[in-house]
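This section describes the prediction task in plain terms. A model, or a person checking by hand, is given the sequence of a single protein chain and must write out its three-dimensional structure as a string of tokens. No templates, partner chains or ligands are provided. The sample shown here is typical of the held-out split.
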Amino acid sequence: MITVNEMKALENQAVANGISKLELMERAGDAISEELRGFDKILFICYHGNNGGDGFNAAKKLIETNEVDVFFIGKEEKLKKEARQNFNTLKNIEQETGKEIFLRKKLDEDQYDVIVDCILGIGVKGELKEPILSAINLINRAKFVVSVDVPTGINADTGEKQKLFVCPDLIITLHDIKKGLERYEKITKVVDIGL
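The expected answer:
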């Protein structure tokens, strides 16, 4: 088990040792994509933070072998640096291949084998608002739900739930189970990102 502060300290130490934040996101994307390869049709729902960046990266790695869509509910101008790089890579793939990756139409959650929650990660504070609340409702109607690192709406340290939160069938967590998610241990897959 690991706390949010301990996880952030490990990430900062990795950066101090010469591993870039982008490389950490690449490693997360590798691990997440490997866990999702068995699903044919995948929808990633991403926000503008690093959790969304992990989703963009995993989507990029699955495009050639799986049917992948990305529903971006954040704001482009708020994308964090590494998340922006992965977002732009997906945009470039769209332009080069002519394949629509980012959804621009109303989506039907029933057409996907899995919906992946890449909305909020370990650093969340405060009440959730739109468009996150609508996204949580959509995710919870899916056939199978995977949350990356932490289910959106659940505090990673305390396990405290917001009024609305993602109810995952599987949590793919980076490095170690977060302290507040101990009760979800049976549905959690810990993946190594080299920390």
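For orientation: The helical segments are 4-16, 21-36, 50-62, 81-97, 132-140.
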